[in-house]
């Protein structure tokens, strides 16, 4: 190699090290520099906000640094996710996202970030079944009754929290795979959906355990089936859709913590370790359970693989059913 080539190579390596060293130094100092921000990508009051606010104080105690929850809702969580994707990758900004995160790339045109390349998974916090339910006076006594109705020309109508929501996509997938005739009635969130469901204004509703169970407990809604491959611990007598003859059907709601893509691996690993640890705390585990969340945890790599699988599954459903956002 000629002298000027060696010199050019050495200069290139020096420049590269200058770019790497600040992040390496920050990884060593983390998390002592400043408070850590958890961006909840939905407004206050929903499950994403509550998950963030459950994690924050426990992480603060575990890592010895202040945690601040900032709500940045809008566009099915994509506005908050975009803000985190463009944040400095220094370990002081993370996103808490919902299952819509895996749907948005195929549903929202011109998303301002690349979901796979601009964000990396720290951990999948947990999953939750969705519940297909009907009002107490309904003609639907079992899930088999729903299937029978959906096989007639009239079909069966159901409400979800909105077009492109996971509930909507799950029912579209079920309808397509089972040759069932469902009519979708979109609502603007869980509150309006539940109001009409308990009043009998919509024959069926699909929503998370968190939003549905209070009305099941009050006997105003009757649960018919859950969307996960295993029965819900909170609803052990309610069969899964898979049990009812739709083998392999699974559509879980889920929550995850993400970081800007270039966040140093040691920081991601330490944050992952901290969240795995605090979720084993009986008090926090119980509080997550009251929201109907089954703790998942695991490695960043396992979490990334899970989310990318979800992206692939729902992209096909969106395309096959020509689903559009609200």
Plain-language structure description:
With 326 residues, this protein is of the alpha/beta class. It has helices spanning 3-29, 47-63, 78-85, 100-107, 143-150, 166-178, 190-199, 209-217, 265-278, 282-290, 300-320; strands spanning 36-40, 67-71, 93-98, 119-128, 130-135, 156-160, 182-186, 204-208, 221-226, 253-260, 294-295. α6 (166-178) links the parallel β6 and β7. α4 crosses α11. The longest helix has 27 residues, at 3-29. The chain is globular, with a radius of gyration of 22 Å. The relative contact order is 0.18. The model has no long low-confidence stretch (mean pLDDT 91).
Draw up the topology in text.
Layout: H1 3-29, E1 36-40, H2 47-63, E2 67-71, H3 78-85, E3 93-98, H4 100-107, E4 119-128, E5 130-135, H5 143-150, E6 156-160, H6 166-178, E7 182-186, H7 190-199, E8 204-208, H8 209-217, E9 221-226, E10 253-260, H9 265-278, H10 282-290, E11 294-295, H11 300-320
Parallel strand pairs: 1-2, 1-3, 6-7, 6-8
Antiparallel strand pairs: 3-10, 4-10, 4-11, 5-8, 5-9
Strand order of the largest sheet: 2-1-3-10-4-11
Estimated structural class: alpha/beta
Number of helices: 11
Q: In terms of per-residue confidence, which ranges show pLDDT below 50 for 5 or more consecutive residues?
A: none
From the N-terminal CA to the C-terminal CA, the straight-line distance is: 61 Å
The helix content is 40-55%
